[in-house]
Amino acid sequence: MRIRVIVPITSFSEDYLEDRRKRLSKEALPMTELEFVSVKKGPITIESFYEEELAAIDLLENVKKAEEDGVDAVIIWCSGDPAVHAARELVKIPVVGPGEASFILAALLAHKFTVISPLERDIVRYENMAKILGIESKLASVRPLGITVLGLRSNREKAVERIILLSEKAIKEDGAHAIVLGCLGMFGMAKEVQEKIGIPVIDPGIAALKIAELLVQTGLSFSKLTYPYPPKKES
Amino acid sequence: MRIRVIVPITSFSEDYLEDRRKRLSKEALPMTELEFVSVKKGPITIESFYEEELAAIDLLENVKKAEEDGVDAVIIWCSGDPAVHAARELVKIPVVGPGEASFILAALLAHKFTVISPLERDIVRYENMAKILGIESKLASVRPLGITVLGLRSNREKAVERIILLSEKAIKEDGAHAIVLGCLGMFGMAKEVQEKIGIPVIDPGIAALKIAELLVQTGLSFSKLTYPYPPKKES
Amino acid sequence: MRIRVIVPITSFSEDYLEDRRKRLSKEALPMTELEFVSVKKGPITIESFYEEELAAIDLLENVKKAEEDGVDAVIIWCSGDPAVHAARELVKIPVVGPGEASFILAALLAHKFTVISPLERDIVRYENMAKILGIESKLASVRPLGITVLGLRSNREKAVERIILLSEKAIKEDGAHAIVLGCLGMFGMAKEVQEKIGIPVIDPGIAALKIAELLVQTGLSFSKLTYPYPPKKES
Amino acid sequence: MRIRVIVPITSFSEDYLEDRRKRLSKEALPMTELEFVSVKKGPITIESFYEEELAAIDLLENVKKAEEDGVDAVIIWCSGDPAVHAARELVKIPVVGPGEASFILAALLAHKFTVISPLERDIVRYENMAKILGIESKLASVRPLGITVLGLRSNREKAVERIILLSEKAIKEDGAHAIVLGCLGMFGMAKEVQEKIGIPVIDPGIAALKIAELLVQTGLSFSKLTYPYPPKKES
Amino acid sequence: MRIRVIVPITSFSEDYLEDRRKRLSKEALPMTELEFVSVKKGPITIESFYEEELAAIDLLENVKKAEEDGVDAVIIWCSGDPAVHAARELVKIPVVGPGEASFILAALLAHKFTVISPLERDIVRYENMAKILGIESKLASVRPLGITVLGLRSNREKAVERIILLSEKAIKEDGAHAIVLGCLGMFGMAKEVQEKIGIPVIDPGIAALKIAELLVQTGLSFSKLTYPYPPKKES
Amino acid sequence: MRIRVIVPITSFSEDYLEDRRKRLSKEALPMTELEFVSVKKGPITIESFYEEELAAIDLLENVKKAEEDGVDAVIIWCSGDPAVHAARELVKIPVVGPGEASFILAALLAHKFTVISPLERDIVRYENMAKILGIESKLASVRPLGITVLGLRSNREKAVERIILLSEKAIKEDGAHAIVLGCLGMFGMAKEVQEKIGIPVIDPGIAALKIAELLVQTGLSFSKLTYPYPPKKES
């Protein structure tokens, strides 16, 4: 199966894209063919509702093109799931958001979970995401690292250390029984954290990949009653 | 005070814009100066999440420009409140969404309320809006007219008739005690419907105007902790 | 328009009433004519459910009289909104409670808000008010000052200082993005606090006035399905 | 133990009071001494929030007097539980509301329950009561008989018949697994209905009595943190 | 009336059973005849979902036998209410779980309550119990003692001391207005704690007894629509 | 990877077990080795809470044995997820319940979903399951077929027909946007139904398999804070 990852930001060099592809491919099924593309127009990183909007148009074009190219599923490479509702309207293939994919797995695996986010402002986004998915009673807390997306890339070690620290606080003070890494800038850090803290730590990139593979295998996709095609206009 | 209404769709002619401005001005305070502008690039109408994204970029530019022009508050002329969260990040002045403005007034005035929407697909949007505002227990139902936005414009009489019919059903079958008109295509129809059905009927255009005026008068705006400015990127 | 403020307690001298009228008038629209009346029989202040009951009968008579006198809207000058549901049954004009008016504005302007109340016991009242309005997921916390209503009057400076202190705690510890002043004894303090803490601070007196003006202007009132007239008795 | 039932309406003759006392005594424990008193000033019946307020003052005096007289618990003989929060502030002995008592028993005994109320307007009251008790997810529906309180007294047979009819509808259409009779005017009808429909039917008078007896026996009463004494005023 | 207490664990000696019977009898009505029986096969104590399952089969046989023996109600002597839903399917007589009985009384008596549990792991069980009863908004917190069930028995004094300590914390930090003792190992400790902390403290054993007596007296039992008999199998 | 399916009922002949294994294997990954075992002691089918208890002991022994045998994940072949919480306490490997697995996928794919259950009594079980998972706002309804588990096996055609009929009703009357088949007796029917009704239809057997495979691949399992090992007893 072909799964295309669409990166909605412009700060991924070709090399970086290829690096991500290789790393994620290690988590993929043998029959999965992974492609990474990035938007040409869009924000450097997405850390605000505004930047989600900046990313949307090129992202949506990419989603449509993916289906035309015969791709089986699409992943939006951002935990805020930008434009994911709009994208699902445009196509029949699954469009997976890493945020939602992580949240439902965490809701399954644990009584309550905490999201580790880059910044304080992400609390609004993730609490709203939980409300829309209906699982707010499973969300123990959102704990911000105080590290920007670019900061996560440039200082991986410090980030992992701080994620471990906040996860331990979340367990102790918020009653968290699982951790969701709330940014693709934390991709690849889950296993290390999980080994340290001993509870499930969900990597948004892997969660999205695995849910995408699951959907393609089962022939399931997002409901066309929830995400119908945009209507034709009467003339 | 100056309030600028930004129309996020391209199907308003200059005349139509002016007509809307005049009609809404009748509802405005004497000290309110109303301006209507429309996006140059965007969808014909907004009836999907996708079209919200199409509207966003030009809309957001307009919001920024409004503040630069010294406008006191902005209204997004669409009940789906497209890009309203992003817009609030960009400016300090209030950016009012007619959907949210209508919902909180209805929640105040009645035990439960029903939203009359153009299409069945709007149920998802409005139930999610209620969840995010936290008032889902006050939302009796969303009742779709089965009439598109353009259809509302071209056949006003039929629309009013059908709104009355569905409102009566909502009272009887869903326990609605107030009605929210869930599309700016129904602007100006509330009073007629209210006279017929005898319970509060909230016009989204007027609700947005009055909330905007209220905010300007009181010096209140949307919280900058909920909608902080988009972050500067580290270099 | 004529708006009558009914003070449900007996500790307002004529001078104090006139002082409040003048101060609130500064916030009113030019076309608003404000009247302040106080109950003749009732409690000194309202700090318990019991004192709400003591206030009710004279208050309700005043509400009826207000409508008979041709007043356009009534405000009950107490954030606990005493007898407000009963009052709405008696008349067609809007009867605005400062508590509810503040809560819905805060729910609109911020992801979450905190109520600063006089006493610890007020937590019950305000959490129940949020439940009935349906917005409990927006209520970050209720933070009591530990100052009685009379104490608020006699030591304004200390009150403002403590409100600022608790608001900052609410932001930091409870995730509050806006503040509601939960007592009319704090009337006139919002702007000062807002300047200090930088997020929306809602004054219950001004919120009630502005919502009352909004309702009169739009011809909206509380639903007669939610608040029908008390039934005639069969004989 | 002495339990005093306070009737908050004025339409109970001395004979009727005595008749109610005798009937309720059949349900009481051998050690329970039942007293029925009625307010002297108050409404004929309570069918509105307004009439609750009319009943409150005399009712509250009676509650205080009951404690002074050495009574062990008080029951307010009205399913709307008028002034019950205020009353609990005034005394240490339990003040039981038949509405709340019925609701918690129904929440225990069944997945969901329906309240049969006299009038359509009661829906607001009972849905709000469920919200405050926190059990709205257990409330299947409120079904109004369309019979006033006086009508319940004057035509018992018709009332029972209609309660059975609505209960069967509630089972079939609303998923009710238990029934709460939502008015003391239906006192004594539960057993008859229960025999007919085969699911638990809760009589508010008996529920209140049994909860009152339970509390007295166990030395439990309402929390003084939830219902503290009204504060003394500073001078 | 005959009430049979079924102890679902095997660590009660005959003497200990008799001791419990005597102690609980002091709380019973004069007309109540109390019987204590213990399962023959089952866990030493119940501190996990697994041990609930170990207890279930013998427990359920005992419940059936109780009804055959003409017993009027059954109490499962464990606050986790093991197999209580299954048990109610098998019989018509009330099967009372001390956990549920305590929760609904606490929900009635206080704005919010805290459960004091033996171990940290009990948080999951009690938060889920509150969700199913629908009263999660009334549950302030679950506070674990860090003492096993056997530890509660062997060191009563230390347990009481620690319950008082945690209750005071729950009042101060979690907003608790009542306390539920969340283990039958704390049976008989409530009064002592209540005297110390001054808010209602609910003993699960007494709560279960009193609710059982209440149900027998009123002829109420659990709904057979919620707990229908297990179906006969088609052959 | 090795995944063992444990059938908690005794009515599967060896042939039937093998047939199920073959059918489910068609849905499995190439690297998945599927095993089907059935309890020796247990109910014929599970249609009540009581029968869940009958199934538990042998089921739990099988779960422990599976881990000892080096199996990577276990599936309980029953949509009611019997003893699944207890089972997770006993082992480290994932124990997947088809009910929970289906619910979270449906919550992801659709605004709201309906569960098609065999019998009316299943409504309680599935509404409680949704409450515990926290997704009750996503559950549009539970629609019972009125067909027993054995009936599903003996008359497949009628069952499919009726599932289609109820699914269409659920879409039209309850707002369902996806369907969950709420019994393993409907295993293998999803694709047929999905083709007919055009929205996602989730097969509980396939959902459980795919979630189990996903967990094994990612090294995730259920949180040991939510499901800790049963405690050793002090002696």
What's the helix count of chain A?
Answer: 9
Molecular shape of chain A: globular
Strand content of chain A: 5-15%
Q: What is the level-2 CATH architecture name of the largest domain in chain A? A: 3-Layer(aba) Sandwich
Strand order in space, largest sheet of chain A: 2-1-3-4
Greatest contact between two chains: A-F, 45 and 45 residues
Number of strands of chain A: 8
Largest sheet of chain A: 4 strands, parallel
Structural class of chain A: alpha/beta
How many independent structural domains of chain A? Answer: 2
Order of helices and strands of chain A: EHEHEHEHEHEHHEHEH
Q: Would you identify the regions of chain A where 5 or more consecutive residues have pLDDT less than 50?
A: none
Report the C-alpha radius of gyration of chain A, rounded.
Answer: 17 Å
Give a description of the structure.
The structure is a homohexamer of 235-residue chains. In chain A, helix 4 (98-109) packs across helix 5 (122-133), helix 4 crosses helix 9 (204-218) and helix 7 packs across helix 8 (190-197). The first copy, chain A, has helices spanning 14-25, 49-68, 84-90, 98-109, 122-133, 149-154, 156-174, 190-197, 204-218, and strands at 2-7, 33-38, 73-76, 95-96, 113-117, 139-144, 178-181, 201-202. Chain A is α/β, with parallel strands linked by helices and 235 residues long. Chain A has nine helices and eight strands. Chain A is globular and about 55 Å long. Chain A has two domains: 2-97 and 208-218, Rossmann fold; 99-204, Rossmann fold (3-Layer(aba) Sandwich). Chain A has a four-stranded parallel sheet, with helices on both faces. A four-stranded parallel sheet of chain A has the order 6-5-7-8, with helices on both faces. Chains A and F meet through helix 4 and helix 9 of A and helix 4 and helix 9 of F.
